[in-house]
Amino acid sequence: MKFNMTETGYTMTTDFGTIDISGDATKGFKPGELLVSAVVICSAGVLRQVLKKMRIDVKNLDVEVKEIGRVEEEGNRIEKIHFHFTVEADHLTEKKFEKAIEVSTKNCAMAQTVKNSVELVKTFTIL
């Protein structure tokens, strides 16, 4: 990764393209959005792998961020991320999905990186 300064922030260049990053949401992704995205997508990706190992055929797994809690007095630090999974799979029970979430949280590098500073709240709906 390489970051280059622009008039309104930075660009990040990777093998997959360039991403604009800025504190101004009209000029690019905000740094907090990238942090939340990293945690949520890492969690969802590992969750898919765990479900596959459990031999659960996942037809679809969507994730929606419901809340991002911040602490204004601490530089607007992110203290909480609540995300909601909507999963479509045959023969998946709440108990199995809760276990899969637990295992995936332990194996997600991003969740482990923020575990002592950001509360991760995960809810779900099984279709």
UniProtKB/TrEMBL annotation:
Keyword terms: Oxidoreductase, Peroxidase
Gene3D superfamilies in alphabetical order: 3.30.300.20
Enzyme class: oxidoreductase
Domain of life: Bacteria
Keyword Plastid: no
GO terms assigned for molecular function: peroxidase activity
EC number: 1.11.1.-
InterPro entries assigned to the protein according to its UniProt record, in alphabetical order: KH_dom-like_a/b, OsmC/Ohr_fam, OsmC/Ohrsf
Name used for this protein in its record: OsmC family protein
Species, as recorded: Savagea faecisuis
Lineage summary: Bacteria, Bacillati, Bacillota, Bacilli, Bacillales
